[in-house]
Design a protein that fits this description.
Elements lengths: L3 E6 L14 H18 L3 E4 L12 H9 L6 E4 L2 E2 L5 H15 L5 E4 L5 H5 L7 H17 L2 E4 L7 E5 L11 E5 L3 H9 L3 E5 L9 H13 L9 E9 L3 H22 L9 H4 L10 E3 L1 H15 L3 E5 L7 H23 L2
Helix pairs in contact: 1-2, 1-11, 2-3, 3-5, 6-7, 10-11
Length: 347
């Protein structure tokens, strides 16, 4: 399989260094423009996350992906990710099947539980049912993939009796990924179900999370699945510039804005860092995907040895990073990083 590259946006809308906040309309336009740049640069995939807060613009993320579908030609479109625990799987499936029709068969979906919990109270779900909700709704979504008339019964949603599930997508099945943070049980579940695994990594040493991919591959092997048909992706915070030190200088203030805003929201202390403190994270055995094209390629190849992953996706627009820089980073990912990685893996 060819190694794939992509970018994604969570659509956060937070104050910049001067306290200014983009309008929701401008932020959405920026995300659409980012997707167009990804498509024009020849990247493989573009993603939009789901959040239901005033400091995000992606609550109706499937609608935003639909707008992007009509502005792009080749790039695959995915959620990063869909919070299936608090959604109606029938509606999610219908939305993404329609997106597949709109995009001419370019749709994927990442299902997960998400890092934020606001959707539970918003949609009347109990945190006491956190695990059971995910298990049941994930199972129903997978059932919807298999047949267009469904009979189903569960605990948290009304039963389905000869329910017609429409429209059907262009693809026989929507390529499905399960988003995994740091929970071993989630990695095992993805492997048992023969779902691709989207591994969200935000920092630290990759060796510390290698056990998750080991568990995934072993669970898939034990279940008798064809490992050659499965994929692991690595997603996380990232940025690229012509020079590694320049990349870290340009990235750090925006990383600080992002982390300060969301750590304060969670009442977790965060001390902003200066670029000099961040420079050591440019080396290959650090997860943070920031540096020159050569440095990022080296990181990806280092992690490939540990994880066996076949996709990298970076969040380049975080913390009000100027869009001109985002465009440049996308160009470098496609035209500098991707060729280095693919040449090394195809030897």
């Amino acid at each position: 399989m060819n190694f794939e590259f992509g970018v994604y946006s969570l659509g956060e809308r937070i104050p910049d260094a001067n306290g200014n906040v983009l309008s929701a309309q401008e932020r959405i336009e920026n995300i659409i423009q980012m997707a167009k740049w990804a498509d024009e640069a020849g990247l493989d995939v573009f993603g939009v996350g789901e959040h239901h807060r005033l400091d995000f613009v992606t609550s109706s993320y499937a609608m935003l992906l639909a707008a992007i579908a009509r502005e792009t030609k080749n790039v695959k479109l995915t959620s990063t990710l869909s919070v299936i625990s608090t959604a109606d799987p029938v509606r999610v499936y219908e939305d993404f099947s329609t997106l597949d029709l709109l995009s001419g068969g370019r749709t994927e979906i990442i299902l997960g539980r998400g890092a934020f919990l606001e959707s539970f109270s918003l949609f009347g779900a109990s945190l006491d049912d956190y695990d059971k909700l995910f298990e049941e709704k994930l199972g129903l979504f997978m059932e919807l993939q298999e047949r267009d008339v469904v009979n189903w019964q569960g605990e948290f949603r009304s039963s389905l009796g000869n329910a017609q599930i429409a429209p059907r997508p262009v693809q026989k099945k929507l390529p499905m990924w399960i988003g995994v943070g740091g929970t071993p049980a989630s990695a095992v579940r993805a492997g048992k179900l023969a779902a691709n695994m989207a591994l969200g990594l935000l920092g630290g040493e990759p060796e510390r999370v290698q056990h998750l991919t080991n568990l995934y591959w072993q669970a898939a092997r034990d279940a008798g699945h064809d490992l050659s048909q499965l994929k692991v992706s690595v997603t996380g915070h990232g940025y690229i510039a012509e020079d590694g030190a320049q990349a870290m200088r340009e990235f750090t203030p925006h990383y600080n804005q992002y982390m300060t805003h969301f750590m304060k929201d969670r009442r977790i202390p965060y001390s902003p860092m200066v670029p000099e403190q961040m420079m050591p994270q440019r080396v290959a055995n650090q997860i943070l995907a920031v540096g020159s094209a050569g440095e990022l390629a080296e990181k990806i190849l280092y992690q490939h040895e540990l994880f066996g992953h076949l996709r990298f996706m970076g969040q380049f627009d975080m913390g009000n990073q100027p869009m001109a820089r985002v465009e440049k980073a996308i160009d470098l990912l496609s035209n500098k990083v991707a060729p280095i990685v693919r040449r090394a893996l195809n030897k």
